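Troubleshooting log. The previous structure file for this entry was overwritten by mistake, so regenerating from the original sequence record. Sequence copied from the archived sheet and checked twice against the printout by T.R.
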Amino acid sequence: MSIKAESVAEYLQNNPEFFNEHAGILAELVIQHPYGGRTISLSERQMLMLRERVKELEKKLREWMDIARENDALQGKVHQYTLALLGTYDLASKQDVATRNLREIFAVPHAVIRLWKEQPPSVEVMSFADLHTNPICAHEAVLDTQSWFGESAEHLRSFAYLPLHKGAQSVGMLILASEDAQRFYPEMGTVFLQRIAELVSSAVHPHL
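Regenerated output below.
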């Protein structure tokens, strides 16, 4: 009767003392080398597995460090953006800095801001802004907002919508856009976009 590999593995997992009682087997076992035709001992195979595991962990560590550096850089840019907003006093200057510094600090190619007090939107756009408290990223423009970008509108392929709120009610919208379809996409994280939306909302709030 043949024994299935799963049964052997299950037996060894449930009986860890097996190799203590049959220590000689460990020295005699040889298995196929994972990257060649020769055979190696079980201990050599374990060493190979440990080296591979270390390489995987080192790769993950490098990825985490890269993410940490990117986040630190973004934090610095958000701080720079905050200082720029704090250096303005009238509403027109705040709106100019809010969009211009997105281009200069974050290299966002296109940004527009609309405040309902000055430029009331369509009912549908206002409902969209009221409904969403967090930024929304998309590959398609929402409703009639693509026209807000003027001559650049037809070339834009990705958008980030940052509703501006005063309490539970929207007071405007900040939209970021790019010709690059992958600059903003539905699955991307929006933590830093949310911070920017909150900063701009706070900056324009006293003037509304």
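Residues 5-54 form one domain. Archived copy saved in two places this time.
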